[in-house]
């Protein structure tokens, strides 16, 4: 149940080559992203690779708490998943899992798309629960979209964006 009382769109357009596709319960292809030690370190603060069971539990949790999407990029006339993002007022975890697409501004454009979704839903503000201090790219990405740190955590900071 994504966001209470709100219908989750099947697709959200990010740009001409990128879209968000609603999670459909299929995620085996994403295991490769979550077995990469560098990616896992940035999102979890450790390098323990995900098992299929852990990946399933993660996606079930995210899908139950917000609008879970796969980030897809157009390749040879087909959209292929390159990452994932979950959107709800209290958090916005995002992963560009395919290294070929990291550092290309896709994450920032996805965040901008979800900021527009938050405005459509008339949220006064949105949050990122935590970005680790070691994840400089994610911090920079959210800050460039207007988010500001408002509270320190054990490993990083919580971020907030006022929309009104």
Name its key features.
three-stranded antiparallel β-sheet, 8 strands, 28% helix, five-stranded antiparallel β-sheet, 164 residues, single chain, Aminopeptidase, alpha+beta, 4 helices, globular
Give an account of the 3D structure.
By secondary structure, this protein is an alpha+beta fold. It has a single domain (11-123, 136-146), classed as Gcn5-related N-acetyltransferase (GNAT) (Aminopeptidase, 3-Layer(aba) Sandwich), CATH 3.40.630.30. 28% of the residues lie in helices and 32% in strands. It contains four helices and eight strands; from the N terminus they run E-E-H-H-E-E-E-H-E-H-E-E. It has helices at 37-44, 52-65, 106-120, 136-144; strands at residues 11-15, 18-22, 67-75, 78-87, 94-96, 125-132, 148-152, 156-162. The chain has a five-stranded antiparallel beta sheet. Strands 6-8-7 form a three-stranded antiparallel beta sheet, covered by helices on one side. The longest helix is centred in the last third of the chain and has 15 residues, at 106-120. It is globular and about 40 Å long. The mean pLDDT is 96.
Average pLDDT for all residues: 96
Structural class determined from secondary elements: alpha+beta
**Would you report the number of β strands?**
8
In whole angstroms, the N-to-C terminal distance is: 26 Å
CATH architecture: 3-Layer(aba) Sandwich
Helix content: 25-40%
Number of domains: 1
The first-level CATH class name? Alpha Beta
Number of helices: 4
The value of Rg in angstroms is 15 Å
Which consecutive residue ranges, at least 5 long each, have pLDDT under 50? none
CATH homology group: Gcn5-related N-acetyltransferase (GNAT)
Characterize the biggest β-sheet. 5 strands, antiparallel
What is the overall silhouette? globular
Please indicate the percent range of residues in DSSP E strands (runs of 2 or more): 25-35%
> What is the H/E string?
EEHHEEEHEHEE
- Kindly report the spatial arrangement of strands forming the biggest sheet: 1-2-3-4-5
């Amino acid at each position: 149940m994504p966001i209470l009382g709100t219908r989750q769109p099947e697709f959200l357009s990010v740009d001409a080559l990128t879209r968000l596709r609603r999670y459909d319960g299929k995620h085996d292809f994403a295991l490769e992203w979550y077995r990469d030690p560098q990616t896992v370190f940035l999102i979890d603060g450790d390098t323990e690779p995900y098992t299929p069971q852990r990946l399933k539990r993660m996606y079930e949790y995210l899908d139950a708490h917000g609008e879970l999407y796969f980030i897809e990029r157009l390749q040879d006339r087909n959209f292929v998943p390159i990452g994932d993002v979950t959107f709800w007022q209290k958090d916005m975890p995002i992963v560009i899992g395919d290294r070929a697409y990291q550092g290309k501004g896709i994450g920032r454009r996805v965040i901008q798309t979800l900021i527009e979704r938050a405005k459509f839903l008339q949220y006064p503000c949105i949050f990122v629960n935590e970005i680790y201090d070691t994840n400089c790219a994610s911090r920079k990405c959210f800050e460039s979209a207007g988010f500001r740190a408002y509270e320190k955590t054990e490993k990083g900071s919580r971020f907030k964006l006022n929309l009104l």
